[in-house]
Amino acid sequence: AGNASGSPFSDSGGRGGSGAVGGAIQLTNTGKITTTGESAQAIVAQSIGGDGGAGGTAGGMISVVGGASGNGGAGGNVQLTLGGGSAGTLSTSGTLSHAIVAQSIGGGGGIGGNAYGSGLDSVSIGGTAGAGGAGGTVTVNANGFVANTTGTGAIGLVAQSIGGSGGAGGAAYA
Question: Whose CB among 76, 106, 162, 167 lies 3.0–4.6 Å from 22's, allowing a Cys bridge?
Fold first, then answer.
């Protein structure tokens, strides 16, 4: 969280830092992978952005503003190449044992700082919420590739780009 700076009469909280950007993923598989057991995925490729930092809390007697929070970082691009010239095979056996999970997920926005006014006519404004980070591009190229799954809820391919949620605004007390 950011640091507050000011006088006892007027104060504002510091700004939260932005989340880091998730790195890019490039994965190629032309071989055979076999897994057994609950939640035993064969390939998981995830790029996840960092969450935004919280804004700083502020307190004073007349004018008080909570610190703005940081934005979430974007998820990086995810690219999978499966098969290609050789026919690869993924086989999973077990509850929720997905063959392939490819995801790019943006980080969540930070929480705005709170503002605490203590004067009779004080004005308090809570810090603004940070925006969620965008999900990146997810690409899966599967030429001549086979995915076999057995087990309750087991999915052959999960490919998702998910944006991060926005943060919450800070509270204001006067």
Answer: 76
